[in-house]
Design brief:
138 residues; 15% strand; single chain; alpha+beta
């Protein structure tokens, strides 16, 4: 339950859902799944299904279906919602205290050495008798 709460907090909480709402959502979700990782879609109301679609967009649920041949020869499709435990565990164990530094595109240029800058500077190429250097032909 705690892992589900943390995963919801790190997804829906960042979109404005309060801690109290996150806790209620975790309880709501676990009331369907309990100790199993899949729920049959027929059990859901349209409102429940809307919530499940939202959680699917957040990467916490996924769907699958099974086809069963009935005695009358008809094909019956059964849809299931599957709790993505691995994603919930990953989100709940992510260290929020040390978020990764977002890469700034300009930082790439700061990492280039002076030799690298000189090698690619226009007008400063090692051409021989007007022939382009190897770097310029590749």
């Amino acid at each position: 339950m705690q892992q589900v709460e943390l995963a919801l907090k790190r997804t829906l909480g960042k979109k404005g859902m309060s801690d109290d709402e996150v806790k209620k959502m975790a309880e709501y979700l676990m009331s369907f799944f309990g100790y199993t990782d899949e729920v049959i879609d027929n059990r859901l109301t349209p409102e429940d299904r809307d919530v499940f679609y939202m959680l699917e967009e957040e990467g916490l649920l996924t769907t699958t279906q099974e086809e069963v041949l009935l005695k009358k020869g008809k094909l019956w499709r059964i849809h299931y919602w599957i709790l993505k435990k691995d994603q919930i565990i990953r989100l709940s164990s992510a260290d929020e205290a040390s978020p990764e530094k977002a890469a700034v595109p300009e930082d790439v240029y700061d990492q280039l050495s002076d030799e690298e800058w000189a090698r690619h500077r226009p007008g400063v190429s090692d051409t021989h008798e007007g022939k382009p250097s190897k770097d310029e032909t590749n």
